[in-house]
Amino acid sequence: MPIAVISLKNIMNAIKIDTKTGKLENYTKRIVRKLSDMKEFYFNKSVVDEILSKNDPVIYEVYAFETGDSVGNLSFATTILYPGKIGNEFFMTKGHFHEKRDRAEIYLGLSGSGLMLIMDDRGNAYHVKIKPHSVIYVPPNHAHRAVNTGKEKLIFLAIYPSDAGHDYGTILEKGFSKLVIEENNSVRIIDNPKFKNQ
Ligand code: PAN
Ligand code: ZN
Description:
mainly beta, Jelly Rolls, 6-stranded antiparallel β-sheet, 3-stranded antiparallel β-sheet, globular, binds 5-phospho-D-arabinohydroxamic acid, binds zinc ion
């Protein structure tokens, strides 16, 4: 509970986002995800190993303002997803279902361009473009992953119930049913041959 009390005190003033850098004022948690933190999430393991033998690029950063995990509260976070590819697969977030599956979420694009993959628990997936001023609704019971298909940083704000939680394990085990790749200089969304539908 102390976290909720401190956070609510902090939130009695508006919180600024620097839309150029994606930094959120007064954040309570910062996460930096490097390739080594998410190497199992990319399709081509040998390309991952080859890159990691030379360097360990930052794929994305998150600045979160979390208000504890009590029911009824909302938390929010900015994500700065860098441009780049692992082989032909664009830089992306790990992606997750919410631990409490029925918790929905809203994304708001702030800078750059990319897309959100949204998938139900049977692997049925669709995508929505994310760019400045676009609002994306992630329905309950759907996994979600952001992909940077552009040349600039992709920056967005996510707003989610504070008790939602993140289940990365299911994605680690089964993967996403779609991959977002570059082919002949264009963005393609293809079926993931490694997706496990069980
Ligand atoms: C977002 C994500 C954020 C990072 O705030 O947590 O973009 O992606 P991963 O959590 O998949 O690493 C969100 O969806 N929160 O619920
Ligand atoms: Zn989420």
